[in-house]
């Protein structure tokens, strides 16, 4: 069967609008996923999968950016769960990659001690400068939960960094 749509995917999705959103929001979504997963390859895959899902759904998605954030957070959570399960059953351990810039590594280590939801909330609040309501929509929770996540995350980071 031949489709009348000029581009495969969701009906009525404007390729130019898709490209605009992709160009502007792909890098921050990859950074969000990287902060959550700790793997650049996984972060790129997660962001791509979120865009593919949006593209396939076409007109069903009214607001693509919140949809994409939610999809990335959801996929990152699944990725982290799978990795934990893999590590639990793995027989070979690998050494973590260290970076030469010590200060950045200390902060990165403190962030990786947080839960994936806490890391995502911290990233969206302090890097993307999103309000609590948008973070709540991306995480699928209430704004009060976001406040709690941020408070606990910042407390844990301060303890790790010995900041008063």
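-> sequence recovered:
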């Amino acid at each position: 069967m031949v489709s009348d749509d000029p581009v495969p995917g969701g009906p009525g999705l404007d390729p130019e609008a898709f490209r605009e959103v992709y160009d502007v929001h792909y890098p921050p979504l990859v950074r969000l996923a990287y902060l959550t997963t700790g793997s650049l390859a996984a972060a790129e895959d997660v962001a791509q999968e979120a865009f593919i899902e949006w593209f396939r759904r076409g007109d069903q998605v009214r607001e693509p950016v919140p949809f994409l954030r939610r999809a990335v957070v959801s996929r990152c959570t699944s990725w982290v769960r799978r990795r934990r399960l893999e590590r639990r059953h793995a027989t070979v351990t690998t050494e973590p990659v260290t970076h030469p810039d010590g200060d950045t590594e200390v902060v990165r280590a403190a962030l990786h001690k947080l839960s994936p939801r806490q890391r995502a909330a911290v990233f969206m609040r302090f890097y993307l400068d999103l309000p609590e309501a948008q973070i709540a929509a991306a995480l699928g929770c209430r704004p009060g939960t976001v406040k709690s996540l941020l408070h606990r995350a910042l407390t844990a980071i301060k303890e790790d960094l010995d900041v008063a």
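The chain is about 70% helix and 0% strand.
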